[in-house]
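task queued by scheduler; priority normal; single chain, no ligands, no partner chains; default sampling; output format set to structure tokens
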Amino acid sequence: MKGDHQGIAVEACVSRRVHDRLTLDVTIQLGQECGVVFGPSGAGKTSLLRLIAGLDRPDAGRVRVGDATWFDSTSAANLPLRSRRAGMIFQDDLLFPHLSVSANIRFGLNGLPRAESDRRACEVAELCGVERLLNRRPATLSGGERQRVGLARALAPRPRLLLCDEPVSAIDLDGRFALVDRLREVQAVERLPVLYVTHSPSEAIALGAKLFLLDGGRIIDQGPPLDVLARREGGGSSRLDDVRNVFRGLISDHAADRGETFIALENGPTLVVPFHDLSIGSVVTLAIRSDDLLLARGPILGLSARNVIAGFVDRVLPHGGDAEVIVRTGEVAWIVSVVLPAVSALDLRAGADVHLILKARSCHILESGRPTRGFASA
């Protein structure tokens, strides 16, 4: 499936006095990628999304999406919210409780011919992993399922921009990363820009291609999420808490007698994980904490860990007393958290050959389903 979003970019240069202690003055540019707005509570993250969406009016500035001007204070242009084609998902899914999942998804498709509405609703339901929930009511769904339905509803009318305001904050940790992975797939398939608000470093790293660090109403840094977060100063611990590697993989085999399942990562190695009763060919979302990965140089013998994978160091990002080491194995990039003395002790530098060591039980399956678009089956 291809969206109609080729060449779309977002440019927002907006200012607004939010209250006595906060004036928002922000400029961002975003291509067909996921941008993360990151910062502490009260920094202006939600206010920025509201200004872009048209829920609030900037005091000055402009907002352009593709070739459309949504707001321009100089020319007095101010496209109404209903005409901006901005999809939005929030902490609260805001589903209509009296409607089925199917009816909720179709809500934004009123006016389309029935066949086209049916086709699009089924398309986004499958993409968001809710195709088996279509006849159910919101009250019967889990928090993660409700948010996936909200995502499908936002996508159905083909928005030109998707705005996400901390949509996973009320979901359990595993559910958060399952939804983050869904968002990554949605962005890749639909080819639309996504602006995602969070204060979670792990979500920012797992999802974003670009991070905008917002503090006191201003962008104080921007760039690749891990780079920006590693440059961040202040705060308590220097460690980037609970950073997870989130990968898509395919169940390739089982060894039930040994209690093992084999998962082939997309464009990467095959991992041994604890046995899971999933059909061979199932696609899964796999999460591995960066703290659960070990690095070694040279030959490795006599380990109980079931995964030893050869790779090389792409780069090292020190911060405080810790460092994040980016290791590549095939086309897969891993984030490995180490203490800073280990960098010098192991001579970890760009290009250095290393082995990743990973226990089977450190690999956590977050979500499973049928093979999805774009996955290169083994």
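post-processing summary
- Helices lie at 45-53, 101-106, 114-127, 143-155, 173-190, 201-207, 225-231, 340-345.
- The radius of gyration is 22 Å.
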